[in-house]
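Researcher: I'm preparing a figure for a lab meeting and need a structural model of a single chain. I don't have an experimental structure, so a prediction will have to do for now. The sequence is pasted below. Please return the structure as tokens so I can convert it later.
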Amino acid sequence: MTENVLRLRILSFRILVNREPGALDEAKTRIGVLVDKVKQAQSAYAVMPAGTEEA
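Model: Understood. Here is the structure written out token by token.
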């Protein structure tokens, strides 16, 4: 999950710096994929804690 969040930060910086339409479209697509991966990782982790203290 950490790796995907770091990739999202890099992509957000690229969007800020590179404003070409082609690059923006590619970045938006990649961001969508990374957001889905982060959500999957969060849901997989959510079932792991055994008790309320671990959660």
